[in-house]
Specification:
It is an enzyme of class 3 (hydrolase). Its EC number is 3.2.2.27. Belongs to the uracil-DNA glycosylase (UDG) superfamily. Type 4 (UDGa) family. It comes from Ignicoccus pacificus DSM 13166. This protein is α/β, with parallel strands linked by helices. 46% of the residues lie in helices and 17% in strands. It has nine helices and six strands, in the order ααββααβαβααββαα. It has helices at 2-12, 19-22, 46-51, 58-70, 93-110, 120-127, 133-136, 158-163, 168-183; strands spanning 30-32, 37-41, 75-79, 114-118, 140-145, 148-155. Strands 1-3-2-4-6-5 form a six-stranded mixed sheet. The chain starts with a helix and ends in a 6-residue tail after the last helix.
Amino acid sequence: MDCLEGIREAIRSCCSCDLCKTRTQPVPPETVGSPKVFFVGEAPGREEDLQGRPFVGRAGKLLREAMEEAGFKEYHITNVVKCRPPNNRTPKSTEIEICKRFLIDEVKCLKPELLVALGKTAMKGILGFDVPLKEARGKVYKAKLGGISAKVLVTYHPAAVLRRRSLKEEFFMDIKKAYNMIYKQGKLF
């Protein structure tokens, strides 16, 4: 996993787009164990920007709760864009494209079996297409990043679940589905 430290250092020193002018600090990925699953969000929020760690705010607490309930002990948490956009706006397509090299490097380094796209921006950044999230949610796609093939499960971003609590059950089911796909030979529940 020495390759991960190189990626983290490249992220910390990146100033390839204007986000480096407004961020507090870039947010490199967080890895626990030898993960087979990546959880990929949109971009850091305020708390993540301040702490330099992904998914540490309220949305992160919800994600980690769902991961724990599902049984995840090893995981990789990252974002398609590594710096906080001003006012938490949605990242621009150019920012996603500039940052995509880091996600590709992360995939090449760890070779995950599954990426969980948390929300529409992550889905677009990983899969390259833009469909309504409610059509893609819960479905599994195939992606090739940096020559590495992986499955991609699309679900809601945990921040959306905090705004619409009615999505919580489906979100937790999707995270459990991700666990079962990898650790329970594809059984859904």
